[in-house]
Design goal:
The chain contains 16 helices and 14 strands. It is of the alpha/beta class. It has 3 domains: 169 residues, Rossmann fold; 154 residues, Rossmann fold; 26 residues, no CATH class. The radius of gyration is 24 Å and the shape is elongated. The model has no long low-confidence stretch (mean pLDDT 90).
Length: 370
């Protein structure tokens, strides 16, 4: 069994289920977007269909930035990373298919109605309702599946890693080390002797007041990874949970942003554009660390970057309002802030787990028809 127990158990169950499927169920599966399955997973998918057809055209990251500049509005790479199949092109590709594998492709209503053999759509992503008319699909006898939970542990662990990097001033520590300098040597040679607390940017995570925005699976996993640090936790969610002794103190959004040493955002991407408003951004005390591994559109990015540039706040960001603002990131990285882009979920463990859950969806559908 694999080192990751959860993945190993799921993979073992999947292999057993697949062994019970004696012949390919699908005649033609159309893969409309680039998705990640490892070679053994692709091989297993191929055994479930007589034919697998890849459709769609990829584009480059340079094209994405050029497009974003021309449009003069926030654009996320997931909107453009594969030139989407639309209209007649999509209908042509899927008209004789009995299964579709997709990620970002919108399977429009005409394609659903004009594909008489279609009985399954499997989305390799965490949501599908915004990509296909679920009610129409159901009425036509088409099953639609997606993978709602695969990166919970990965995102939570990177939330912790990014927060620690900011607290410990790791970007500048790494730069000093590359230059052959270190604090102990500077102290011994009297080149840098701190006289006040403010001259030591490094901090511990122990006993910090952490405000968590949202209380879904990732937020709850963040609570678990923070447990050894004995932080003073509080949370906000639209749905207040019962006080069961395990859930942290509930606070208003204003209270979270006013009272916390660290604010970490873990909301549904559709919770509302700029729900983290300018007012909330400016409620954070100087020295607060703001963390977002959720969705960039949730935050008033202009207000956040204003306070970051003033040096009043520090941040770890993995998401932005559109593509990462390269010039701002270069400037702010020198101040000890940490920036990545949509990497929080992306580990080999999470990708394999996602693939196994994706395959489990297909297996369950086939077995339900046998």
């Amino acid at each position: 069994m694999r080192q990751n127990r959860t993945i190993g158990q799921l993979e073992e169950a999947n292999l057993k289920a697949e062994a019970g499927i004696e012949k390919p169920y699908f005649n033609k599966l159309v893969v409309t977007d680039p998705i990640i399955l490892f070679p053994d997973q692709w091989a297993r998918l191929k055994r479930l269909s007589k034919s697998i057809v890849s459709a769609g055209e990829q584009t480059s990251i340079d094209e994405l930035y050029d497009h974003a500049q021309k449009e003069s509005k926030p654009i996320c790479w997931t909107q453009l990373a594969a030139k989407p199949l639309e209209g007649e092109a999509l209908e042509k590709e899927v008209k004789d298919a009995d299964g579709i594998v997709a990620c970002w492709t919108t399977v429009h209503e005409k394609a659903l109605r004009n594909s008489p053999n279609l009985k399954y759509i499997g989305y390799w992503t965490h949501q599908a309702a915004h990509r296909v008319n679920m009610d129409l699909a159901k009425s036509l006898g088409i099953r639609v599946d997606y993978v709602p939970d695969y990166g919970t542990s990965a995102v939570a662990s990177q939330t912790l890693a990014g927060t620690l990097m900011v607290l410990r001033n790791m970007p500048n520590e790494m730069k000093m080390t590359q230059q052959g300098k270190w604090h102990h040597e500077l102290l011994k040679t009297r080149q840098r002797v701190p006289l006040t607390e403010e001259q030591i940017p490094q901090e511990d995570l122990w006993f910090k007041k952490v405000g968590i925005v949202g209380w879904g699976p990732i937020a709850q996993q963040v609570k678990k990874v923070l447990a050894p640090f004995e932080c003073d936790l509080s949370y906000w969610s639209r749905n207040k949970r019962p006080n069961d002794g395990e859930t942290p103190e509930y606070k208003s959004l204003e209270g979270i942003f006013s009272d916390s040493d660290i604010v970490s955002v873990h909301l549904n991407p559709y919770a509302g554009d700029k729900i983290i408003s300018r007012d909330l951004i400016y409620r954070m005390r100087p020295g607060t660390i703001f963390v977002n591994t959720s969705a960039g559109t949730l935050v008033d990015q202009e207000a956040l970057f204003e306070r970051l540039k003033s040096g009043e706040l520090r941040t770890y960001l993995d998401v932005y309002e559109g593509l990462p603002p390269k010039a701002d990131i270069r400037e702010l990285s020198s101040k000890g802030n940490v920036f990545t882009y949509r990497s929080a979920w992306f580990t080999k463990d999470a990708v394999r787990l996602k693939g196994e859950k994706f395959l489990r969806n297909i297996e369950n559908f086939i077995l339900s028809k046998n």
